[in-house]
Amino acid sequence: MPRGPKPGSPNARNGGLAVKERYGLEYYRVIGTDGGRRLLEERGIEHFVTMGTKGGNATKAKMGPDYYREIGRKGGSTKHG
Predict the structure, then answer these.
(1) pLDDT tens digits, the chain, 81 residues: what are they?
(2) Which phi and psi angles does 61 have, rounded to 5°?
(3) Whole-model pTM above 0.90?
(4) Do 48 and 56 form a contact (C-beta atoms < 8 A)?
(5) What is the C-alpha to C-alpha distance for residues 15 and 3, in angstroms, rounded to an integer?
């Protein structure tokens, strides 16, 4: 049986704000970093490559190839460094 409020509900939001107030933003940074390290150790870099490919394919299917052309055009037109 699930614990806590339904994700996305006002009660869930209030709970998240209470944790943020109690522990601060650094708490979320630490648990995020620890989670990323653990995933890397357990599943390896290939996991991240696979997730990136899946995400890219999903974005391409949703937005179309013109989306990437526009990103490339905008990125190429900015001044770097």
Answers:
(1) 667 888 888 888 888 888 889 999 999 999 999 999 999 999 999 999 999 999 999 999 999 989 988 988 888 777 665
(2) -65, -35
(3) no
(4) no
(5) 13
